[in-house]
Amino acid sequence: xxxxxxxRRTAALGLGALWWWAVLRLALEPGAGVLxxxxxxxxxxxxxxxxxxxxxxAAVGALGAxxxxxxxxxxxxxxxxxxx
Length: 84
What we know:
By secondary structure, this protein is mainly α. It has 3 helices and no strands.
């Protein structure tokens, strides 16, 4: 378990250093090219991914397949009843 954790940290640090190298090279070097841009954009794109997600069945408040229509109807009908 400790070896796997160490490997993940090493990989994260290495990829983070590569990303920073690309970003700094793009910002400071007039001759930076497509490779640096691809690394920088790819790293940013990965940071946008949701990494703290859970399966739908385990998510609190998640609606199963086919329940959206019923849930929206329930919300609308409850809102309409309050106005009456």
